[in-house]
Specification:
By secondary structure, this protein is of the alpha/beta class. The chain has helices at residues 8-20, 38-48, 88-93, 116-121, and strands spanning 2-5, 27-31, 63-67, 76-81, 105-110, 126-135, 138-143. Bound molecules: adenosine-5'-triphosphate and magnesium ion.
Length: 144
């Protein structure tokens, strides 16, 4: 599925819609250059789950866990950023892998393309979202 957004708000709206389709247990790999809209999309997901906390980039802390109370099944939104070149071992060391595939969690991983093989082997449900920066305010979002 391919979507074009014309503003930050547009991408937030798309994240919100996307949240409504999640069942729990998915790992979502967010792929795209700096400033392409990955974190903005996760902000929209948080809106979809009625989170009050503002989502900020987890670049320097690697992983943030937000508690969800408004959903019957999904209780945690996990937001990971592997921008610093983290691999599976690093993610294991910080305890991130425990959340992958858990029914009560949805995990969003910025710069997560490197996890594809690992997730496939573990039969963990995965979606990939590619963000392309078309011009200053226009982004193409491709969900597979
Ligand atoms: N249509 C749009 N969708 C999303 N963001 C947009 C759009 N138009 C402009 N922007 C701007 O682009 C930037 C996107 O930043 P964001 O932090 O979401 O990117 P990112 O992909 O997470 O980058 P990084 O790799 O640095 O983490 C914001 O400054 C936002 O205001
Ligand atoms: Mg980001």
């Amino acid at each position: 599925m391919k979507i074009i957004t014309k503003s930050e708000k547009g991408t937030i709206m798309q994240g919100k819609k996307f949240a409504a389709r999640l069942k729990g247990g998915e790992v979502i790999l967010l792929v795209g250059d700096l400033g392409a809209g990955k974190t903005t999309f996760v902000k929209g997901v948080a809106v979809g789950f009625d989170l009050r906390k503002n989502i900020t980039s987890p670049t320097f802390v690697i992983m943030k866990i937000y508690k969800i109370s408004k959903h019957l099944k999904i209780k945690n939104l996990i937001h990971i950023d592997t921008y610093r070149g983290l691999d599976i071992n690093d993610l294991e060391n910080i305890g991130a892998l425990e959340y992958f595939g858990r029914d009560d969690c949805v995990c969003f991983v910025e710069w997560g393309a490197g996890l594809e093989d690992y997730l496939r082997k573990g039969k963990i449900r995965m979606k990939k979202i590619k963000f392309n920066d078309l011009d200053e305010n226009t982004r193409e979002i491709i969900i597979t």
